[in-house]
Specification:
Blueprint lengths: L7 H21 L3 H12 L4 H8 L8 H28 L24 H15 L3 E2 L5 E3 H4 L18 E4 L5 E4 L5 H9 L4 E10 L11 E11 L4 H16 L5 E8 L2 E10 L16 E10 L1 H6 L8 E8 H9 L12 H4 L3
The structure holds phenylalanine (PHE).
Length: about 350
């Protein structure tokens, strides 16, 4: 820098130029790491400052004081700018690095997910949508007509005792019930549309039941209803085997035992061969080789009459089962209450 004959003008001009550059670089800095680099570059051993300092001795004696003052002013200004910036960076909380890789996933982002019952419900609905079904829903508080009468349970009929109903006093002399099953949505759907009908109905249902390992006063069901010309029991058997196999992820065998529901005739309880022992008998299936899933049957002509369908023209099948039970079976969950206690240590396993 201090080539021969270098006068004070040259040195002060150099300092001024460097100062301007330094101040703008300091102002632009966004991290303390780069600020440290600038400190070294503009105040350090290899800085212009250092070189000018060393050139002082080559100057004429009368020129030295002025350059000396320029040197101190440079040093003070740069040091002050750096200190100010340091404080700012600290206040803004942390050190955003200059090298941010935007393609990296964020660290440790806690994320929720659907409750197992919702997952199971969506999976089953998906299976049925794949078979051409639509989704229908209905109210959780319904009338006696939809929950019972239109489904062929007349008032006082002993079959009502199968379902321990919670009645709601609406204060206007008409009874409402917390629906005991999703079957009222069969009626609501058929009232609204002409056949053919292919729907599944997921939903929450309520029974006057004491909580134990496998029963809860609030639980969820999936209902299915297919109505068309010439639907047979064969269609029902095939549909149930298909969705059970899809849900359990393997080819299951099915068993149908005669049963009774007022709204189906004939009626059956359906079961799948145990997916844990393949029918041999184990703890999950209580050594029977079968897991009971739900109820089903051919739609009773009286239900068709209640919704204005002609039982001479159409036929159909319906089925219904509990979602909690399906989830418990597939995931080896022992107590139904686990679904409602919202203990994340349980929920996050699924
Ligand atoms: N609704 C019946 C129940 O909750 C199940 C069922 C649905 C049976 C459809 C036959 C047909 O017990």
């Amino acid at each position: 820098v201090a080539s021969k004959g270098t006068g004070k003008e040259k040195l002060t001009a150099l300092l001024e130029k460097t100062e301007t550059k330094a101040l703008s670089a300091i102002a632009d800095t966004k991290s303390s790491a780069t600020l440290d680099e600038l400190k070294r570059e503009y105040l350090g051993k290899k800085s212009v400052l250092k070189q000018v300092n060393e050139s002082l001795k080559d100057l004429a004696t009368e020129e030295r004081p002025e350059v000396g003052r320029a040197i101190s002013s440079y040093r003070e200004k740069i040091a002050a700018a750096i200190a100010e910036k340091e404080e700012k960076l600290q206040k803004s909380g942390g050190e955003p690095s200059d090298i941010v890789d935007l393609t990296l996933p964020p660290r440790n982002q806690p994320r929720g997910h659907y409750h197992l019952i919702t997952q199971v419900e969506r999976e089953l609905v998906d299976i049925f949508v794949g078979l051409g079904y639509q989704v229908a829903e209905g109210p959780e508080v319904d009338t006696d007509w939809y929950n019972f009468e239109a489904l062929n349970f007349p008032p006082g009929h002993p079959a009502r005792d199968m379902q321990d109903t919670l009645y709601v006093n609406r204060g206007n002399g008409t009874d409402a019930v917390l629906r005991t099953h999703t079957s009222p949505v069969q009626v609501r759907t058929m009232e609204k549309q002409k056949p053919p009908v292919y729907v599944v109905v997921p939903g929450r249902v309520f029974r006057q039941e004491t909580l134990d390992a496998r029963h809860s006063p609030v639980f969820h069901q999936l209902e299915g209803l297919a109505v068309d010309e010439s639907i047979t029991m064969g269609d029902m058997f095939g549909t149930i085997k298909t969705f059970l196999s899809a849900f359990f992820g393997r080819d299951v065998r099915t068993r149908f035992l005669p049963s009774f529901f007022p709204f189906t005739e004939p009626s059956a309880e359906f079961a799948a061969s145990c997916v844990f022992c393949d029918g041999v008998g184990c703890n999950v299936c209580s050594k029977t080789g079968w897991i009971e899933v739900g109820g089903c049957g051919m739609v009773d002509p009286n239900v068709f009459l209640a919704v204005g369908y002609d039982p001479e023209v159409v036929s159909g099948f319906a089925f219904g089962f509990g979602l909690e039970r399906m989830a418990m079976l597939r995931h080896g969950i022992g107590t139904i209450a686990s679904f409602y206690q919202n203990d994340v240590r349980v929920l996050q396993q699924f």
